[in-house]
Design brief:
This protein has 175 residues and is mainly alpha-helical. Helices cover 81% and strands 0% of the residues.
Length: 175
């Protein structure tokens, strides 16, 4: 029996715990009403942790399970949409994008964010029936969204760097 198959139960338990923890953050974000983006960012940290520690298919499963739980159980479906399109998926994509040269990496990151932002706006407008003025395809939404995204990417990079350089050795997880 190889090491990978011996660790599969541990990885499955860790993935389930990360998905549940991420869902708890999403649920807390819906309860407050104003902390939805913060909840999405913190939930995304669970996916980032899965990318670092679990690798392979496990981060995708954490993302899929939490996204499904959010769609089914959250009273505010928009936060579920934010998590699926912007929060949970991005740490996984980031791990692939950062293998590219820096310029192409940033081009891929910005392009993927704008595609997902457009998808969120379309879903909010046509699937959820949101008719508020902030759900408009205007330059301000995209400028503010891209500025937030750059800060989000930087914060995620800082978290990942801190975790890899300081916390990982102290935790000594054997997944």
């Amino acid at each position: 029996m190889n090491k990978e198959s011996r660790n599969a139960p541990k990885r499955m338990i860790a993935a389930a715990m990360l998905a549940a923890l991420s869902f708890v953050f999403m649920y807390l974000g819906t309860l407050t009403g104003v902390m939805d983006l913060c909840a999405v960012v913190v939930g995304a940290l669970c996916c980032a942790f899965a990318v670092i520690e679990l690798r392979g298919i496990w981060p995708w499963l954490v993302f899929a399970v939490c996204g499904t739980l959010c769609i089914v159980f959250l009273p505010d479906k928009f936060i579920a949409l934010e998590y699926i399109a912007l929060g949970g998926l991005y740490p996984i994509l980031k791990s692939y994008f950062e293998r590219l040269p820096r310029l192409f990496s940033w081009m891929a990151k910005i392009a993927s964010f704008n595609v997902m932002l457009t998808a969120c706006l379309l879903a909010a407008r046509f699937l959820m029936g949101v008719q508020e003025e902030w759900v408009a395809f205007n330059l301000v939404v995209y400028l503010v969204g891209n500025a937030f995204f750059v800060l989000y990417d930087y914060a995620l990079t800082v978290f990942i760097t801190y975790y890899m350089n300081k916390l990982r050795r102290r935790l000594r997880l054997k997944l």
